[in-house]
Amino acid sequence: MTATTTAALQFTQAELLGKIASVDTSRVAIDVSNSVLLTRIGIGTLIAIRGATELEYLIAITDRVTRSLCDALPEELPEGDEEAMLAAVPRDLLRGALIGTFRTVEGAKKNTFKRGADSFPQIDRDCFVIDGGNLQRFMSILGSDFPEAERLKLGTFVADRTADAIASGDKFFQRHAAVLGSTGSGKSYAVALILERAAKLKFPNILVFDMHGEYAPLADPAKKGFATRFRIAGPGDLEKPGDDALFLPYWLLNRDEMLSMILDRSDQNAPNQASRFTSHVRALKQRTLEVEKKTEVVKTFTVDSPIPYEIDELLELLRVDNTTKGVGKTGSVKGEWEDKLTRFISRLEAKLDDRRYGFMFPPPYRGENL
Where are the alpha helices (DSSP H) in the chain? Predict the structure, then answer.
């Protein structure tokens, strides 16, 4: 087989859109000669620009399409002494951003796409619209390296509804993404559809924070729901928690998050209080690791590491600090931390006794009451 027959992108002269008119760093301008093709182009359409060889195309995505009128001589000049009148001739221009390079053959590989342009297109290079069968084959190349268990179908392309938009489910949920649109445009439906398809992946470990209860039907068996729904436990769940009540232990919070709840930074003793809290929490976490024989973790953990510790033990250590006197030359003197932690301890005790914080701190009613 020749390279032509195996190429994923195959164009005819009738599919020629136009030629490169200008190049500006990562953007190109195309002088469109095929006005029929222009009517099929919108923002986001993919364009193939012939590269240095027949086996290479630079891929651009359109971000601007314009038509302007300019004066030009007519194709046929008048006979005799009649003056030639200038005519208004439309000029179609398209601007696109270079996004990658497609090669029919690259070493031992065939039909590859790499993000980023290795070179810039030359003036007058031929440009083609990627649609129809070319778009389908090109999109299949983008997802060809994804394992079957990670292939996440996001939908189809507006330019060609038969071309599936495939992403790596593993990479998709490891990066930031946004679903944007006006009210009623279908954002919630789009997210629900993505979640439904993601649930079919091999390892669909996805956590959704549903702040307004929009996605509750996804966990409703009567509506063929596929998710498990939890809610943050409230005061009514402390004695008899429901199966869907979720408790988030305080030790998952880092140092600053914990202190934001119990430290009054306007208190003149706030630095002392933060210091003793940090020291004790780190020591308690280290003790947990030593008891669990996690010797490797002991070498690298920090006070922010999510390691369990007993909040009651922390409270007792703070009380000891707050009441321990120092030893001077003539006897006992005021301790280094004595009476400096009183308000801090009071605030922590208030949080522990507040049932609204029961989802985080040990409930005030334990033992036989549970």
Answer: 3-6, 35-38, 132-142, 169-172, 187-198, 255-262, 270-291, 295-298, 311-323, 342-353
